[in-house]
Specification:
The complex is a heterodimer of chains A (about 230) and B (about 120). Chain A has about 230 residues and is an alpha+beta fold. Chain A has eight helices and nine strands. In chain A, the strands form two sheets. Chain A has a five-stranded antiparallel sheet. In chain A, helix 1 packs across helix 2, helix 2 runs antiparallel to helix 3 and helix 3 crosses helix 4. In chain B, helix 1 runs antiparallel to helix 2, helix 2 runs antiparallel to helix 3 and helix 3 runs antiparallel to helix 4.
Chain lengths: ~230, ~120
């Protein structure tokens, strides 16, 4: 047990260093410490399951140690900014003002083709359209287009459309969704009344969504949608 | 903060259990080795009775030892004690001393997980 305890700490530290060196592209949405704890926990937990000759304590002790390390490291990351800088990735600016930072690209180990691919996935045809490109700490690329390539906003067009509000499913597969109705502050009677006033029979519908303002959208049994 | 305190308590419990286990496994190994070392020669009349006492001591400790020592090691100790007894009854001197040496090794293996050494850690 004593050896297991020390081994767990050693492997945890070793994995943190390894994953930090691997860079943010391998990490995804998790912090390095979270990822390591997740990886190790799943492995350690399976040990006594896969091999009955191993006592359960051989999994429990490392799991408690991992849990403690995870909780302590997440607290330390919150309270000690220097440590956060050391253990967590920071966003990398790859392009700013339309100028590509080749050193940053090299540091992020991204090729120009990969950058182009990411930019295309964001809906821009070429790097020429891009004002800023930032590789976020979760490994995703944020692309801010140049003003002349950005889609115009309603404000820029001088329009003032009303906010639609969040639509909730209120009826689905011949069943009322009371949770959805409650969220928009309505009830079953309101829904039946609103639909019948529009000449729509509930039994002909597949699903209905609605918002707080009473806007309705429905899809009938044939998959055709309509709104009011 | 509540989860942090709960985690720390859990860690303290684990550390306490580890410390107790460290002391328990080492003392059990010491007792077994001391008793094995003090076994009379197999030709002696008391030999089988002493091995029985050693077996009794081991069987008394097996349930607790098995909580933290892998079953293969536990089974090795059990097998060597049985073999020791068989060899003593049959007056097989070579087999007896071989079983005694293997018992010693098995007990050392049991102790290994509870001792500090670079080989263990790495």
């Amino acid at each position: 047990m004593l050896t297991l305890l020390i081994r767990t700490v050693l492997i945890y530290i070793f994995l943190i260093v390894t994953l930090r060196l691997m860079g943010k592209r391998q990490i995804g949405e998790l912090e390095v410490t979270d990822l390591i704890a997740t990886l190790l926990l799943s492995e350690v937990a399976s040990l006594p399951i896969a091999d009955p000759s191993i006592p359960v304590s051989h999994a429990l002790v490392p799991m408690v140690v991992l849990l403690t390390l995870e909780v302590i490291s997440s607290l330390l990351l919150l309270r000690v900014p220097r440590l956060k800088k050391l253990l967590s990735a920071t966003p990398t600016v790859l392009m700013e003002g339309g100028v590509l930072d080749r050193r940053a690209l090299l540091d992020a180990r991204l090729s120009i083709e990969e950058l182009m691919s990411e930019v295309r996935q964001q809906g821009y045809a070429d790097l020429e359209n891009v004002d800023c490109a930032i590789l976020e700490k979760n490994g995703k690329l944020t692309v801010l287009p140049k003003a002349k390539y950005a889609p115009p906003t309603a404000e820029q067009l001088g329009l003032s459309p009303a906010d639609q509000g969040l639509m909730h499913v209120v009826y689905n597969s011949h069943r009322f969704n009371d949770a959805g109705l409650t969220m928009i502050g309505k009830n079953r009677d309101w829904l039946c009344h609103e639909l019948s006033s529009r000449g729509v029979r509930l039994r002909d519908l597949f699903c209905v969504t609605a918002n707080r303002d009473g806007a309705l959208y429905w899809i009938d049994r044939n998959g055709r949608g309509a709104s009011s | 903060m509540r989860s942090f305190i709960a985690t720390l308590l859990l860690l303290l419990l684990t550390l306490a259990a580890t410390a107790c286990n460290f002391s328990y496994i080492n003392s059990t190994a010491d007792t077994l080795q001391a008793q094995a070392e003090a076994l009379p020669p197999p030709q002696s009349d008391e030999s089988v009775a002493e091995i029985d006492r050693l077996e009794e001591l081991w069987e008394k400790n097996v349930p607790l030892v098995s909580l933290t020592v892998d079953f293969l090691t536990v089974d090795r100790v059990t097998e060597q004690i049985t073999l020791l007894k068989v060899c003593a009854v049959q007056q097989d001197l070579d087999g007896y001393f071989s079983a005694l040496a293997l018992l010693w090794d098995a007990v050392e293996d049991m102790r290994r997980l509870e001792s500090f050494s670079p080989q263990n850690l790495l």
